[in-house]
Amino acid sequence: MNFKPKFVKKGDSKTSNETNRSYDPITKYMATDLVTFTPDTEIIEVIDAMLEHKFSGAPVLNENKELVGIISEQDCLTVIVDSVYHNLPISKSIVSKYMTTDLQTIKLDADILDVANKFLNSHFKRFPVVDDKGRLVGQVSRRDILRAVKAMNITTWQKELAN
């Protein structure tokens, strides 16, 4: 589902794209103080951090601080199943073996509607936010978008449509 609302002002036949209607930038709602890991971090350290800090996934950065993957709770569950199946200790597993490397990112100039659409069209719960050079600057989650929606003044939309 791809949705881009078309707003028409009274007496004007232009759509929202032609009138440059804009929404809050994602930078207003994204998290910037992130826990990150490296590809050689042991999975047990990731699990400990997730439990202690109550998050469900984190970016993985290489030695140049470039985004190379995401490690999630689901990835960690895979480690547990693999360790039981192969009779290997969990502590020997590292992030690079289990992290997701097929990444979808959000550009720094995206707005909340762009990101909401991206969430509707994917199974991801979070997206890394990157600058023009592909460097990680933050992360946005579904919950961040819900906070943005709550902050929007619905009555303002109706007043603008009436104008």
Low-confidence stretches: 13-19
Q: Which structural category fits the helices and strands?
A: alpha+beta
The 3D shape can be described as elongated
Strand content: 5-15%
What separation lies between the terminal Cα atoms? Answer: 29 Å
CATH class division? Alpha Beta
CATH homologous superfamily title: CBS-domain
Provide mean pLDDT, rounded.
Answer: 84
Instruction: Let me know the largest β-sheet.
Output: 3 strands, mixed
Estimate nothing, just give the exact number of structural domains.
1
Q: Order of strands side by side in the largest beta sheet?
A: 3-4-5
Secondary-structure element order, as H and E? HHEEHHEHEEHH
Q: What name does CATH use for the topology?
A: CBS-domain
The value of Rg in angstroms is 20 Å
Ordered list of secondary-structure elements with their pairings:
Layout: H1 16-19, H2 43-53, E1 57-61, E2 67-72, H3 73-86, H4 95-98, E3 106-107, H5 112-120, E4 126-130, E5 136-141, H6 142-151, H7 154-162
Parallel strand pairs: 3-4
Antiparallel strand pairs: 1-2, 4-5
Molecular structure report:
With 163 residues, the chain is of the alpha+beta class. It has one domain (23-162): CBS-domain (Roll). Helices cover 37% and strands 15% of the residues. The protein contains 7 helices and 5 strands; from the N terminus they run H-H-E-E-H-H-E-H-E-E-H-H. Strands 3-4-5 form a 3-stranded mixed β-sheet. Strand 3, helix 5 and strand 4 form a beta-alpha-beta unit. The longest helix has 14 residues, at 73-86. The protein is elongated.
Short note summarizing the structure:
It is built from 7 helices and 5 strands. With 163 residues, it is α+β, with helices and mostly antiparallel strands. It has a 3-stranded mixed β-sheet with strand order 3-4-5. The protein has a two-stranded antiparallel ribbon with strand order 1-2.
